[in-house]
Amino acid sequence: MNNMFSAGELAKMQKISKQTLLYYDKIGLFNPSYTDPDNGYRYYSAEQLDYLDTILIMKKIGFSLNEIKKYMKSYTTENSIAFFHNQLSVIEKKIQELSLIQNRLEHRCQQVEQIYSKQASEPIIAMTDCTYILYHEVSHPYGMKEISIATKKCYAQALNHNFPIFFECGVSVPLERILSGRYVEAKTAFVTTENVPSVSNIIMLPKGLTASIYHFGNYYDIDSSYIKLMRFCRQKNLKIISSSYEFCINDYITSRYQEEFITKIMFYVEEVSE
Description:
Helix content is 42%, strand content 25%. The protein is of the alpha+beta class.
């Protein structure tokens, strides 16, 4: 046919699949100019090429197929300007979100690389900056199943409400449980975040003196690192004044092997005079 293209020819020309053209036809976005009644083959006119280019460009800009379909029913210069200005706002918001994600992911990579390469498991004393955490209570009997459920609640709340998160989760274990040897019975699970004043289950871990240690390997062996850290505090005349805060540095997000897991254990402490 003169000035007509088959679906295969048009797909090859535009570097898209025939299935894409079939789908566009199915949803009423881009219909063939002619369909052969005998074999069902679809043909497109030369005049439709610019129309398809517009659809593909709009999609590249970030519009959904439904938005493109609605737009192309009746578009003029005037409503196009308004439409594009609105999309610029959408793109700017996405750029800001991606920039935050990029910064936090870079931080996570650097953190894992530095700690994993050193494999240092000796306790340290440091002045820690304040950190905000979004938490949920861990249900009885406070096992890994209950911890996982509470952690999922944290991530679900953060993602559903678009709270800023740093791809880092953890748990808090009350000091009395630790002193009685119940090292893995967490009271709360949390994800690190930023201050959102209107959210009641976001709290600030204050700036303060801390003692910490990195536990390498299976989480169920963490008691050895707790014992080492508490012994260190006694030797340094440091009084533990908080629950423990465990931060998952290397976990199921970055490795499937538990022997590669890294957990930071941290207590707030104060110096005691001899």
